[in-house]
Amino acid sequence: MSLPIVLEIAVGLIFIYLTLSLVASEIQEILSALLQWRAEHLKRSIEQLLAGDEQPPSLSPSVNNPSEQTPAIQPDPAQARQQNWKAAIEFADSLYTTPLIENLNYEAQGPIAQLLRKLSHALGACYRTVTFSRNVFGHKTSGPSYIPAEAFATSLIERLKLADFQRLLMRSRFSHFARTDVQLPLHNIVNELRAYLKNEALLAAEMAYFDDSLTQITADLGTHHLTLETALEQIASLLHSFEAMSTEEPTLQLEANVPTARSFLKRIRYLRHRLRDSNNHDTLPDHPATNNATSTNLLVAKLKPSLGDLAALLDPQSETYAELVALAQREGGAVLNALENLQQEVIPPNLRASLATLSRRAETRIRAAGETTSAEIQQLQTEVENWFNHGMERASGVYRRNVKGVGLLIGLAIAFTVNADTLYMFQRLSSDSAIRNSIIQTAESIEIRGIQDAQALSQNLSIDEISQQVEGDLRSIGNVIEDTLADYPLPIGRTQAVIAAQQEAQAGWPIPFVPQRFIGWVMTAVALSMGASFWFDLLRKVMSVRASGDRPNSHPLALLSNLL
Question: I want to staple 145 with a disulfide (CB 3.0 to 4.6 A). Which of 38, 66, 288, 484 is the partner?
């Protein structure tokens, strides 16, 4: 068999595979849309990401109420794994109710579109009933097919209220610090001065102004009007103002008691030095800037909850959680409501461990970059986004393998339906030059159109038009099976001529108990599962090689090297 004939046979097979692959792709897209394969796979992948296990266990029907399944005693590993998955499913359902993710699920508009959507939901319900599978969307009927990493990370952090808890704990620690480390020592210093000078009204107006201002600073920090660093700076400025006013108020008494005045002012200055940052060290000539900046950084780190503290909030046995409980009991109100919401949230144990790891990683990156503590939540969100992206990369690989398997089944169904036997097609193309020429002419007309990819082909050239070009008078893909031209029939279909030819070829088939056409169907199914894009690209390459072979005086070895 000469090389040009081999190329013509290859073009014929590739073109038939391309035609049927377009049909298979359309069928797969329709099934994917009706049964919401992408959205379901995304939801299951997020559940697996939150649970941390490779494979989910068999879940009981009460999967949507894991909070009711908490055993009274320590569960065994299998029960703990099941509880972890139930918690992951419920937490994923709660994430899907957050605004950023819920808004990604666009509902159909218009009566016809809504009717089609209801139809797809009904088919999905029937599919789950037949397959005994759960509704992965909980009480809803659909979900988004794509979630950006930023939307997931933001929704996760907002769902756990980590930023709110950080502000609550920071305000509580700041209030305690301002009261015990600033206000109370200042009152003691003033009271000692009053007792020594026997003047109980000494600096009364200044102290009242200081107390009111300190209360306002604490309130502004709680309402997010001030950052922690700014609040500390304002207290330092407040102490500086108090020091300046105190030197003017009791002028006679201080002049008469110089050692006492010096001691009084020195103790106030000491309180102020602890709060000053390095940007203001020029006002403190007696205090080194380096020590001052270090003291300020340590104070901020002490008052502001770290990412590790926030991750520990998810563990009821942690010290940070106990601190939050004490704050809720002491203040009630919004803090108590936030604590109750956290207690009602069913958090998978593996998610707690993952967030703890991500928090430590974020803190390490912040220290390495030398950034301020104000970037902690942003860095944690970045780590969550990376964690989500890595998980979705693995999920995409699983989805592609699943799609390949579904494509193989669809290809097998198409091969059986239209009787697309690869072995018979090869035999027919090898012996019938008229069919080869008909298919090649159609393939060449596609190249003339300038179509660049399979997607453009499916949009520019319908399956009906391909059939009409190949056969000359076919009206639809269904007519390819039943109505073929007598002169140039396609080597597929269930016409009497095709079936008779297949039965004749079966007589010389060497494998018993396995029909030849079955092997041919499987070969066609494998070919169709490779996708229309693959066959379109291959068709262009083979057509290019064949076109180069039409030149005069072309050497066969050169053509073969181009093909390879």
Answer: 38
**Is residue 251 pLDDT above 70, yes or no?**
no
Longest dimension (CA), the chain: 128
CA distance linking residue 11 with residue 541, whole number of Å: 10
pLDDT confidence tier of residue 357, bands split at 50, 70 and 90:
very high
Nearest to 425 by CA among 434, 435, 417: 435
Residues in the chain: 564
Residues 284, 269: Cα–Cα separation, whole Å:
9
**What is the structure's pLDDT at 71?**
45
Q: How many CB atoms lie within 10 A of CB 561?
A: 10
Which burial class, exposed, middle or buried, applies to 210 when counting CB atoms under 10 A from its CB (0-12, 13-18, 19+)?
buried
Q: What is the pLDDT of residues 32-58, one digit of tens each?
A: 877 778 888 899 899 999 988 656 665
What's the token pair of residue 401? Answer: 């393998």
- What are the structure tokens assigned to 223, written together? 């309402």
Residue 347 DSSP code:
-
- Residue ranges covered by each domain of the chain: 3-23+418-563, 36-145, 162-303
pLDDT (tens digit per residue) in 302-337: 888 888 898 998 888 899 999 999 999 988 888 888
Give the C-alpha separation, 564 to 545, whole Å.
10
pLDDT of 464 > 60? The answer is no
Strand, helix or coil for residue 114: helix
- Residues with Cβ within 8 Å of 391's Cβ and at least 6 positions away in sequence, in order, are 45, 46, 48, 49
CA 68, 312, 324: angle at the middle one, nearest 5? 85
Q: What are the φ and ψ backbone dihedral angles of 388, each rounded to 5 degrees?
A: -65, -45
Question: To which residue do tokens 């993710």 refer?
Answer: 101
How many CA atoms are closer than 13 Å to the CA of 512, on its beta-carbon side?
0
* Rounded Cα distance, 313 and 324, in Å: 8
pTM of the model: 0.72
Burial classification of residue 275, based on how many CB atoms lie within 10 Å of its CB (0-12 exposed, 13-18 middle, 19 or more buried): buried
How many CB atoms sit inside 10 A of residue 347's CB?
19
CA distance 162 to 155: 11
In 3D, which of 50, 44, 41, 37 has the Cα closest to residue 388? 50
**Beta-carbon contacts of residue 84 (< 8 Å; ≥ 6 apart):** 51, 52, 53, 348, 349, 350
Spell 128-160 as b/e; 16+ CB within 10 A means b. eeeeeeeebbbeebbbbbebebebbbbbbbbbb
Q: Which residues contact 423 (CB under 8 A, 6 or more apart)?
A: 505, 516, 517, 519, 520, 523
pLDDT score of 549: 55
What's 142-160 look like in SS3? Answer: CCCCCCCHHHHHHHHHHHH
| First-residue to last-residue Cα distance in the chain | 18
